[in-house]
Amino acid sequence: MHMARSTKATHAPEMKIPSTRRSAFRPITEAELDVALRELSSGTAPGDDEIHCEELKQLGRVSRRCFLRLFNCSLRTGQVQAKWRHGIIVPLLKPNKPANSMASFRPVTLTSALCKLMERIVARRVRDCIEDKLEPQQAGLRPARSTLDTLMQVTSAVRRRKDGTKTADVFIDYARAFDSVDHGCIVKALLPFGVGKHLVAWIAYFLKERTAQVRVNNVLSEDIWLTRGVPQGSVLGPLPFIVTVDSLSKRPNCIHGLQHGFFSGDLTIVCTSADLSEIQQTIQKGLDCITHWLAEYYMEVLAEKTEYTLFGTRETNLLSLKVGETALKEERTPTLLCLTKQPHKGLRKHVLCMKAAASTRLMQLRAVASPEWGPDREKLRPFYLALVQAKMCYGVSSWWFDTSLSARERLERVQAQAEHSLAGAPKAANREDALCEARLKPINEVAHRRALEYYPRLKAKGPAHAKVADSIFPSEHPIYIRLANVQHLYSIIDSTEKPHDAKVLQWARRVHFNATALGSLKADAPEKDKKVHTMRRVQRFSDFDYQVWADGSVVLSVSSGAGALVYPKDGRREVAVLGAGSLACSHRAECVAMEAGLNRLVDVIELSKTPRTRVPAFTDSLSLSMALSAGHEVVDGAMLRRIWDLSLHIVRLRASVNFQFVFAHCGVPRNEAAYKAAERGNTKPQSYPAWICDMVTGVDRHVRNEMYRAFEEDRMPRTHRSVLLDHVQPAPKHTKADRLGESLLAQFRTGTSEHCGWLHRVLTRKADQLQCRWCSAQDAASDAAVEHPLVETVADSASAPDHGIVTRKGGPIICPLCNMVCSRRQAGVVQLVKIHGLKRDCALALTKKARRAALTYKSGYTCHVCGEDFARRGL
Fold first, then answer.
1. Neighbour-count burial for 14-40, b at 16+ CB within 10 Å, e otherwise
2. pLDDT tens sequence across 227-266
3. Predicted local confidence at residue 837, as pLDDT
4. What are the CA-CA distances from residue 445 to residues 346, 396, 422, 429 (Å)?
5. Are strands 224-226 and 166-172 parallel, antiparallel or unpaired?
6. DSSP for 58-91?
7. What is the CA radius of gyration of the chain?
């Protein structure tokens, strides 16, 4: 089947390779090769030459120059050697497909690692030419785009329909789209995008006369000649494909009332109307248009797998749609990019599928942790977010607002189970309390946040995407209410920008970064040590022509300031002070300060005309240094891009820029001067454009403050935890307790255990903050004992009776080895087996002779929070 569909159509003309005689040749630079080497994926299977990508990354300077000459010769002449055009096809079974059918396998091609390196260089140059010219409906195989774009476009059309109107969706399935695209059509499609003829010729020779072998169980087939299609699994293959189908994306735009969404080769056309005949006519016109295009490009549609769904009615077979002579069948619950839809309101089936998948992964997570043993909460939480919540909340911003309350409750129950597993609290704990203990957000808040992130990012991509954003989010969408709460804190949103093209890569090699901590010190190191190591690093640059110092100052949701100082080696310093915006975080304030400092530096260098200038730029923001060191080809934020542009402009002025990280507030004079300048910036106008992440964080902060305010004003129902702690804030992120200690803390704060082990002391609001709140020797107030009846207190520890040896299984005991108070004998056995490594028989014998636990005991104990040892005492 793969061989038949990869053979050129009999009526397709031969591919015409453009001539490169009169076109200018731009050679590949060392910087382009370095970037391509960095982007090579590690751990991938090698091609027929058995060269691994890890080996290429270790090449020295001489070897890299040899490969550079080879690549330039190949690009100049357009010749691609036969080994680069040979691949090994490995059939991979598609998920949830039967293994006894050839159509269930996806042919993945393993190509040469050297060819992959050359493909990355060519792909970057091609992407620079085509990215701005592609249709916004195409969301697949493009940077900063995902399946969410297509899901938003398609589901919003169904959501916007009014009462009495109906929406028809047609899900078009191609016959092996990647394997059947014609090579001549690819060359014809690349030229109108302005791609250089040398690149087009190289791509044509790369696709021409390709050969492949199929490998199954380490057995290779004979060579297969592929005269059409692009190799799946290659670096360059997706780009020619989306360029070719871009012309298909333009044709439905010419049909009135027809919308569409494109993700790679998955095309969905949508029509909404109250008149069924109008829907029938519009959809059929779109299908005919697509059929004609496919005939022109020598591709075909699998009519037997192409389906349609009519939303807004429970009746079936109301439409009669055809592709060619084949009638389309109606599917009541279609699946689009893993989103299962239904013709009436709600997404019950999709929610049930997500619940089942998330529950399976949650069971796997439970197998590695329990309240008594396993990783602590902060190690389990990322696994839950990546394995369980990521599956449960896939594309959640596109479908959450269409689900019913009962469907939402099903997903909230799954997260409630996860909360108890992460925090170690029993199921009887209140759901809100367990959320705080596990440091998680409700699914509803996750959906609102993701929708809030998506809306401004889409609008910032340009006018065409802004229209799509306004159509996806109508005026009655709930995110506008949240946006209105912080709109007074910013004027405009800072837009994203396209990455730099390959021409500036050579200049970027003269921008250096040092984002490592000085002397391997941590943030909590003594100030004296910080100052010593900072001054050593600064002293290395004392002979440089200029120094730039930048710092930021932030008052959350009120104001922020940015200050930058430019110190010439001989001359007067230059100061730049400005406001960074009311929503700015410390990282953003540092970015504004660095941008202002580099701007001032450009003016100084241009006036002085100093040849071969060397400039160190000092910042105490490690996040800024790491973000810039990722490279200008990765950075897409407008402000970080402007900092890179200024750095490249300084390089063009025959200067080198060296960004250096230093510790803050450790007594370095120039750093302190920059901070004072930043504090003055708090009084400046806060009209700087806001970042999208700052806006989203500001909305989250507003929601959190409203919740705290409602709690203080008694407008929120009080739970055991909120009464005990007198707040609704999440549990601390970092504690000194182990897994068992965290579980006991959660049980104590949620009131789900009368015997909280060693956490038998009263949590009082009068405790000294400098002391451990769990083992503080302060007496519990009488009102605290009344307020928290689950905790028993003893007035005089000296008069506390000795409870003797345990005579029943249900009583709390003291662990004979570590003085840990266990709720019962069974918990003591688990403690001795899991924590101390004893055998069960020995542990059972020890627990039978264990002392009965009370609020006071003779031998004392060790606090599992602060680690302090205590003698016999009580409250």
1. ebebbebeeeeeeebbebbbbbbbebb
2. 888 988 788 988 999 999 998 988 888 899 899 988 887 8
3. 80
4. 19, 11, 19, 21
5. unpaired
6. T--HHHHHHHHHHHHHHHHHT---TTTTEEEEEE
7. 33
Each residue of 343-352: pLDDT tens digit?
A: 888 889 999 9
Residues 117 and 137 in one domain: yes
Average pLDDT for the chain: 82
Q: Of 750, 831, 370, 373, whose CA–CA distance to 823 is shortest?
A: 831
Average pLDDT over residues 797-802: 34
Please check whether residues 509 and 622 belong to one and the same domain.
yes
Of residues 737 and 356, the one with the higher pLDDT is 356
Q: CB of 632 within 8 A of CB of 646?
A: no
pLDDT higher than threshold 60 for residue 585:
yes
* Reported confidence tier of residue 6, pLDDT bands at 50, 70, 90: low
Judged on CB neighbours under 10 Å (0-12, 13-18, 19+), 498 is middle
Burial class (CB in 10 A: 0-12, 13-18, 19+), 335: middle
Please give the torsion angle defined by the CA atoms of residues 19, 21, 26 and 32, in that order, rounded to the nearest 10 degrees.
Answer: 40
CA angle at residue 549 from 543 to 551, to 5 degrees? 165
Let me know whether 588 and 710 are in one domain.
no
Selection from 442, 354, 461, 438 nearest residue 399 by Cα? 354
Residue 327, domain member (yes or no):
no
Which residue range forms the structural domain that includes residue 553?
Answer: 502-689
Bridging pattern class, strands 613-619 and 266-273: unpaired
Helices (H), 682-717: 692-712
Q: Alpha-carbon distance 803 to 625, whole Å?
A: 61
Residues whose CB is less than 8 angstroms from the CB of residue 375 and which lie 6 or more positions away in sequence, other chains included = 368, 369, 739
- Read off the pLDDT of each residue in 595-620 and give the average, rounded to a whole number: 88
* Strand ranges, E, within 717-810: none
Residues 176 and 260 in one domain: yes
Among the candidates 689, 713, 728, a domain finishes at: 689
The answer to whether 588 touches 691, Cβ cutoff 8 Å, is yes
Question: Residues with Cβ < 8 Å from 272, sequence gap 6 or more?
Answer: 157, 158, 160, 161, 165, 166, 167, 168, 257, 279
**Dihedral over Cα of 245, 250, 255, 256: its sign:** positive
